[in-house]
Amino acid sequence: MVYTRKDVSTLTPSERRRFVKALLEVKRRGEYDVFVRMHVEYYVPDGETGLRAAHMAPSFLPWHRRFLLDLEQALRRVDESVTVPYWDWTRNRTQTAVPWTEDLLGGTGRRSDRQVMTGPFAYRNGMWTIKEGVTNTAYLTRDLGRSQDPIALPTSKDLKAALADPVYDTAPWNSTSAKGFRNKVEGWGPGRAPGSWRNHNRVHRWVGGHMVGGASVNDPVFWLHHAFVDLLWSRWRQRQGSARYLPEKPPAPGDAQHGRVVARHERMPPWDVTPDELEDHSGIYRYA
């Protein structure tokens, strides 16, 4: 049966409790940290050698779609009524708006060490200890809005150019691609930071703390953020009609991207699935 992903701001109190409870249970079972390790492993930027499947590459969107589905399946094994809600950061834009409430994700970190002190994922509650990451910090950290050097969340206007681009992606198929929906929504822009952080990337920076870097999955907002990015891909496909995932075929030998990006019909690690098979999610879930 096709299920529905909802805007997190529309969840009922019961739906909020069920979602949080399921996340905490997946964490207690040890499954959650497997997702963190996987994301760290596949956080391969332009400057490194080898295949780029999850970031700075065409498969950014299908990779995270499958990643979301795996987490969602884990949640639904706990409670089949739960789905991953999405956070529309073009509308819920303040540090006190949903999802930064006491009954959902809690708020920003305290000034001294950015430790999250509110909500169910606060370290002091004993149910959300960071075990996988790039530092030894055991508590969840956030710095909503970047208190020392403030930035704003992306707006609907910021997304307009991405959604209007009729091509999915273009050579050189990385963070420097000037055209194509994928890189525009992933958010690798020209120039220097923070001006070069756009859309998806800018949101990671706005949240701060653990959301910056490969271990960003440690913050549960990761899933709500990527559910919205996934929704944007759905909207782009509806708007652009026949536009498809690119590249259709792998870059040829001698091309700088040969063996570095996943073509439409190639298997996308670590799963036995192709981007082509993930373009249409209508048989699994829909968005409200």
Structure summary:
The protein has a single domain, classed as Di-copper center containing domain from catechol oxidase (di-copper center containing domain from catechol oxidase, Orthogonal Bundle). It has helices at residues 13-28, 31-41, 60-78, 156-164, 181-186, 199-207, 221-240, 275-278; strands at 3-5, 285-287.
Can you count the helices? 8
Kindly report the spatial arrangement of strands forming the biggest sheet: 1-2
Tell me about the biggest sheet?
2 strands, parallel
CATH class: Mainly Alpha
Task: Give the second-level CATH assignment, the architecture.
Answer: Orthogonal Bundle
Number of domains: 1
Question: What fold name stands as the CATH topology?
Answer: di-copper center containing domain from catechol oxidase
Mean pLDDT across residues? 96
User: Strand-residue fraction?
Assistant: under 5%
Poorly predicted regions are: none
Radius of gyration: 18 Å
Q: Give the ordered list of helices and strands.
A: EHHHHHHHHE
**What is the share of helical residues?**
25-40%
Classified in CATH, the superfamily is Di-copper center containing domain from catechol oxidase
Structural class call reads mainly alpha
Shape: globular
Task: State the total count of DSSP E strands.
Answer: 2
Write up this protein:
By secondary structure, this protein is an all-alpha fold. It has one domain (3-287): Di-copper center containing domain from catechol oxidase (di-copper center containing domain from catechol oxidase, Orthogonal Bundle). It contains eight helices and two strands, in the order βααααααααβ. It has helices at 13-28, 31-41, 60-78, 156-164, 181-186, 199-207, 221-240, 275-278, and strands at 3-5, 285-287. Helix 1 (13-28) packs across helix 3 and helix 3 packs across helix 7 (221-240). The longest helix is centred in the last third of the chain and has 20 residues, at 221-240. The chain starts with a strand and ends with a strand.
